[in-house]
Specification:
Layout: H1 2-11, H2 16-24, E1 27-31, E2 36-38, E3 46-52, E4 55-61, E5 64-71, E6 76-77, H3 80-85, E7 92-95, E8 99-105, H4 106-115, H5 117-143, H6 146-156, H7 160-163, H8 166-173, H9 177-187
Antiparallel strand pairs: 1-8, 2-7, 3-6, 3-8, 4-5, 4-7
Helix pairs in contact: 4-5
Domain Cyclic nucleotide-binding: 14-113
Pfam families: cNMP_binding
Protein name: Crp/Fnr family transcriptional regulator
């Protein structure tokens, strides 16, 4: 739990009292690899925080999965539509390994944000980080080769090759598995 608390404090320096407040409103759950926490077309009522584990967000398009993000310790798993608007989401969230998670209802999380300025600022910083991450991803897709994107991903998430099937990595990079195999063969 100490590593998790350190990670969430990297986004915003929460006081011990505020960390206790947040943790006091969560339920700790351990869920198995392959679990779908959220499904497209449904309203997600909970947000999860990863204490330990690895997950991905993806959607279906033309009979295939397209991975849009990966998440690890200290990160949140949520449907923005479910959280912000209580409407059905477009994404699926799958656990790529057994995960130790904190679960909190979106309603409770919003009440905490409304009543505690530290948590509101922390939530804003978390959202800012997500926006920045997607902005970088967008620029990388347009200005970097697939090989450069692969190397950057492995540099940012060194454990990814142990935790994520290659088909999901290829999907995230926007390339075929054959192309990914060629890239990997060139570096090994």
């Amino acid at each position: 739990m100490e590593v998790f608390i350190k990670k969430i404090r990297e986004a915003y320096p929460l006081s011990d009292e505020t960390v206790r407040l947040l943790l006091g409103h969560t339920e700790r759950v351990v869920l198995p690899k392959g679990e779908l926490l959220m499904r497209e077309g449904t309203v997600a009522k909970y947000t999860y925080f990863i204490i330990k584990g690895f997950a991905r967000g993806f959607f279906h398009k033309e009979d295939r999965d397209i991975t849009i993000w990966f998440a690890s310790e200290g990160m949140s798993l949520l449907s923005m539509n479910g959280y912000m608007f209580s409407t059905a989401g477009y994404e699926n969230v799958e656990l790529l390994e057994e995960c130790d998670l904190l679960k909190i209802s979106n309603e409770t999380l919003n009440c905490l944000f409304d009543s505690n300025i530290e948590l509101a600022n922390w939530g804003r910083r978390m959202s800012d980080g997500i926006i920045l991450k997607f902005e970088k991803l967008f620029m990388e897709r347009y200005f970097m080769s697939a090989s450069e994107r692969y190397h950057l991903l492995v540099e940012r998430e060194p454990e990814i090759l142990k935790k994520v099937p290659l088909r999901h990595i290829a999907s995230f990079l926007g390339i075929s598995q054959v192309s990914l195999s060629r890239i990997r063969a060139g570096i090994q």
